[in-house]
Amino acid sequence: MSGRAGTGDRGRRGEPERGEPGRAEAGRGEAGRGEAGRWPELEAALAVVNRDVRATLTLPGREPLILMVVPDPDGFDGDQVYVAMADGRSHGNPVHSDDLEEGAEPEPGDAAAVLTVVAEAAQETLMELLWQVWPLCREHGTGMHPRPAGTSGDWYPGETAAAGPPVWWCRGGRAGDCHDASLIGELADTLPGKERRALRRRGRR
Question: Among 10, 47, 91, 159, which residue's Cβ finds the most Cβ atoms within 10 Å?
Fold first, then answer.
């Protein structure tokens, strides 16, 4: 399974030239929205991440992120699945295994790993296409990244000692006060009461 964590905590990163087309416009085959039920683990993870998007970010048209399937133009690697805006544009790596051996499952059984990769992909797409950092730590005003709960500042991907559930992790301020800000999917709980109530009212409409 592919996916990568972001590399910066403040501002934009990896900026393309303005006007660069999103993946859906870049001629990578006939892209289409993922068929419901085909990628159940990815769909479940994206539903969790979309709770955080809805709680903290106003997307154009308020449409949630989707899974976008892009066939390999050469027909060798099969479909590539990306986390995309509702209009089909995306940025970054696919969120499923794109180098499957024959008979292998395209989705791993580790729900935490799937959630982490989908959260990373959502972050890539949102930051690059909206030109803003997401999500932000409310305490430090700093960009956060998916990590296992309870990790320290010197944690690195693949470290076996980290086994907590996926959280949004903040590097903290100059004092080095890194911390877990929220479980992924629970950013609404970090909002002030007035914002939480407004969010609940929107959800009832």
Answer: 91
Phi and psi dihedrals of 26, rounded to 5?
-100, 10
Beta bridge partners of 179: 170
CA distance 149 to 97: 24
pTM of the model: 0.76
- As given in the structure block, the two tokens for residue 39 are 């990628």
Contact 129, 14 (CB under 8 A): no
CB atoms within 10 A of CB 144: 27
SS3 30: coil
* pLDDT tens per residue across span 130-184: 999 999 998 888 899 999 998 888 777 766 666 689 999 998 877 778 899 999 9
Cβ atoms within 10 Å of 74's Cβ, excluding its own: 7
Gap between the Cα atoms of 125 and 175, Å rounded = 30
- pLDDT tens digit string along 179-191? 999 999 999 988 7
